[in-house]
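Quick start: what a row looks like.
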Amino acid sequence: MARDAFQTGVHSLDRALGGGIPPGSVAVALGDARSAVELVGYRTAVATACDTRYLTTMRTPTTVRAALGDAANAGRRVDTLDLAHPETVEIRAVDGTEQTDERRLSFDQHGVIVVDSFRDLVASGDWREPFDAIREHVRDREGLALLVLDVHPEASLSRPLRQLCRAADAVLEYHTDRATEDALTARKVRGLAADEPVLPVTVPLEVGRTVHHDPDRGHQ
């Protein structure tokens, strides 16, 4: 029996995609370094009952745990998602350039993997091996991986980033406009049903900045 699509926790986007991102996918969430793109990682981590591992290079596990709690509470206020309790998410702090492979990090049976941030591996050009290990893991388990990248505008067209986006199964872009509400665009999602909408699809973020955001993107 085929597994249902994985919800991103952004309810309007999940509806637009016919339920979410297909199982076995590696998704990339991109946002300007000044944006709150990590909110996509938080919402995805708490939007599924599947065992989830959250790998953080930017903050302490305590900070991530608090943010996951905020994301779960905010999600309950804006929609009817059956959100997992944030305490069920396993959090591990890793170095930004650590070899992120299954042997080193022991993904075990986790069906959802969130890496925040994948930026340093992309910047170093050493992203392919960890990407392939993560992709093999989620395909074997029909799971989902979300790689969060906060990128500076001048890096948005870098060759490694373009290569990563081509290799990924889904690409989500977080948009920040202080004059209006934040938005999320799905530019690419492989494996959607034939009757799903033509991409790109852009939706407003219902949660926006009610969830904790660390503008310095550093450990707290």
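That is the whole record. The beta strands are 25-32, 52-56, 90-93, 112-116, 144-151, 170-175, 183-189, 201-204. The first strand starts at residue 25 and ends at 32.
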